[in-house]
Amino acid sequence: MIDWIYPLLLVGAALIVVSVFTSLVAFRFGAPLLLLFLGIGLGAGSDGLGIEFSDVNTAYFVGSLALAVILFDSGFGTSLKSFRQAAAPSIVLATIGVLLTTAVVGMAARLLFGLSWAEGLLMGAIVSSTDAAAVFFLLRVGGITIRDKVRSTLEVESGSNDPMAIFLTIMLVELLASGAGITGFTHEFIVGFGLQMGLGVALGIAGGAAIVFIINRVELEGALYPIIVLGMAVLLFAFTGLLGGSGALAAYVAGLVAGNRRVRARATLVRFQDGMTWLAQIVMFLILGLLASPSQFAEVALPAVALALFLMFVARPVAVWLCLLPFQYQRDEIAFISWVGLRGAVSILLAILPLIALLENGSVLFNTAFIIVLTSLLIQGWTIKPMAQWLGLIVPPRIGPVERVGLELPGSANHELIVYHVVDKSPVAEGERLPRWARPSLIVRDGQSMRFQYAGRIKAGDYVYMFIAPRYTRLLDRLFASPTKVEADDKDFFGEFKINPTRPLAALKEAYDAQIGPNVSLEKTIAEYMRERLGGTAEIGDRVAIGALELIVREVDVDGEVSEAGLAIDQDAQKARVPVFMSGREIKEFVREKLGQRRQRGAAQKAREQASADQD
Predict the structure, then answer these.
(1) Contact by Cβ (8 Å): 544, 538
(2) Cα 523–chain centre separation
(3) What range(s) does the Cation/H+ exchanger transmembrane domain occupy (predicted)?
(4) How many Cβ atoms are within 10 Å of 518's Cβ, its own excluded?
(5) b/e 271-299 (16+ beta carbons within 10 angstroms → b)
(6) What span, in angstroms and rounded, lies between the C-alpha atoms of 114 and 117?
(7) Looking at residue 93, what DSSP letter applies?
(8) SS3 of 603, please?
(9) Per mean pLDDT, which range of 155-159, 179-183, 546-550 is the poorest?
(10) CA distance 87 to 161
(11) Whole-angstrom Cα distance, residue 292 to residue 300?
């Protein structure tokens, strides 16, 4: 009677194992890993190996559970510094950007598929959000290091825009199912938006604080801490949704709050959540792949691919450009943020809702969303790194690889135990002295442990144990890193000239005739001016434009101060790579130039009229 259990477990476990092994292909060839997961699900489905799965309610339940885990981990892994740096533009993208994308894609869907306005907007809402799992994988695991502001913007946006897309999709599905159509959209939107987002943020903050409070005060077996944290995150997701709020937003905010507080067993939590997030992604993509029938794709393939291309090349860029106009983003940054608009599991998950509601064109919407996701992962997912290289956003490596592991101390200590493996030709192996505050506690050499005082000079192959505050880790990494080859594009990225950031702005103005604003004190140092223009924080690769000049952050110290800066002159050639996406600053300069030319023409016309009158 229960013979079906073993084949089910066999097939399910086999699919998961195969999916894990495909990660080797993704890491080696740069393939979008989530696309491989989705492909395995499609290959095992009814049109492949023949596994029949058509339970849309179960698929949506499993997908929602996986989404709660992914969003909580996304927030947990986002530093407060990154969130603050990108909060304003990311929130605008996650709200207004999603609305703009929904509207623009909705109009195109209406024309391509002959849908009603409400159905067209529903199609736009389904594919309006970027996929957090895909973006995080490509940015954190994909082996590219881009400018911190751009990376933070993409990560925060992808982690926070799902609630808006979910809200719009559910609202439009309910309107269509009730027969109200688009007429009830405005009232439902205003009331529903305030309730869902308000409850989501409030309960997310309270839930995150409660998780930290419980973890730090309850004595449990070590292995139980990750389990109770994950359980409370899912509990918060469900409770918020039950009250009419956005469970997705609550899960993300709770993760953000908990991840930026001192919590017990953090290292264990991080490792466990990483594993559970990978499992959630694999299971969600496999189930969504099993649910689809590729044989039905042919009916909507051409308009669906056209809509996917329209989304990539028109709708997403227009929405991003309009949303980022008030902020200080350059053309290449706006172009890259537009391109990293990958659609993923959330879009397919939302496309299940029309099927659950038995809408007339539910299968059309589902199959179209699936094709859009496949197209996005194929085109955008495979070209993220080349696009970043072409736009000049990849930060050249300043140090080589570091072999380091951090060990968690019990309680809430302000220090951590760091173990470095000394590599050949690293600065410490070449004789450079360690700072006074970084005296090792133990040296392990050739399997023998010894005190630092008796070890003599540190040698390649040594394991060095030391207790330090986490904020100093980056400084020590430079001493223990293997030598790095200076890339040919180092000067192209950091500027041809090095300048002393402790010098006053007056020196920069005198040497390069820098066009510094009239209300800026020339006694202010270059470093202070750069941090002020950058919103109070500076990261390696950040740029500050001053007319034809561009100041570039080459290095920052442990306090976040600019300790080394570069100077680039005449960056017009680089900016010409992207002929669109004029920044807010460029638009102001363009308008100011046109007004100046108009005034000049007006003055010349008056002069000619006056001369003509004098002759008469």
Answers:
(1) no
(2) 38
(3) 17-390
(4) 4
(5) ebbeebbbebbbbbbbbbbbbbbbeebee
(6) 9
(7) I
(8) helix
(9) 179-183
(10) 12
(11) 14
**DSSP E strand boundaries for 327-411:** 404-407
From the CA atom positions of the chain, what is the Rg in Å?
28
The helix (run of H) or strand (run of E) holding residue 365 is: helix 362-379
Q: What is the 3-state secondary structure (H, E, C) of 149-188?
A: HHHHHHHHHHHHCHHHHHHHHHHHHHHHHHCCHHHHHHHH
- For residue 523, give the DSSP letter: T
Spell out the SS3 assignment of 309-335: HHHHHHHHHHHHHHHHCCCCCCHHHHH
Distance between CA atoms of residues 380 and 375, nearest Å: 8
- Show the tokens assigned to 130: 């970027």
Cα within 13 Å of Cα(419), Cβ side: 11
Cα 117 to Cα 124, 128, 167, 172, 303: the distances in Å are 11, 16, 18, 11, 17
Task: Write out the two tokens for 307.
Answer: 């809509």
Type of residue at 118: A
Residue 369 pLDDT exceeds 90: yes
Sorting pLDDT into bands at 50, 70 and 90, what band is 188? low
Please give the C-alpha separations between residue 419 and each of 9, 167, 402, 416, 483, in angstroms, as whole numbers.
41, 47, 11, 10, 19
The CB-side HSE value for 474 (13 A sphere, CA atoms) comes to 10
pLDDT at 528: 84
User: Cα 540 to the chain's mean position, in Å?
Assistant: 18
The string of pLDDT tens digits covering residues 385-413 is 888 888 878 777 666 556 666 666 565 45
In whole angstroms, give the CA distance from residue 260 to residue 265. 14
Cβ atoms of 345 and 281 within 8 Å: the answer is yes
Tokens for 59?
């698929």
Nearest to 285, CA basis, from 66, 102, 479: 66
Q: Which two tokens stand for residue 177?
A: 């199912």
Q: Which amino acid is at 41?
A: G
Say if strands 549-556 and 463-468 run parallel, antiparallel, or are unpaired.
Answer: unpaired
Angstrom distance (rounded) from CA 477 to CA 466: 13
Q: What six digits make up the tokens of 456?
A: 């003599």
**What DSSP state is assigned to residue 553?**
E
pLDDT band at 569 (very low <50, low <70, confident <90, very high): confident
User: Please, are residues 145 and 397 in contact by the beta-carbon 8 Å criterion?
Assistant: yes
CA 122/CA 372 separation, integer angstroms: 14
- Which residues, 6 or more positions from 62, have their beta carbon under 8 angstroms from its beta carbon? 283, 284, 287
Which residues are 104's β-sheet partners? none
- Tell me the C-alpha distance between 313 and 297, whole Å: 22
Which pLDDT band holds residue 573 (cuts at 50, 70, 90)? very low
Average pLDDT, the chain: 82
- List Cα–Cα distances, 603 to 592, 606, 608, 614, in angstroms: 16, 5, 9, 16
Rounded to an integer, what distance in angstroms lies between the CA atom of residue 40 and that of residue 286? 7
Distance from the Cα of residue 71 to its chain's centroid: 12
Residue type, 453: Q
* Alpha carbon distance 482, 399 (integer Å): 7
Please state the pTM of the whole predicted model: 0.81
- For the chain, the residue count is 616
Three-state DSSP class for residue 515? coil
Q: Which residues pair with 568 in a beta bridge?
A: 550
Count Cβ atoms below 10 Å from residue 407 Cβ, excluding itself. Answer: 11
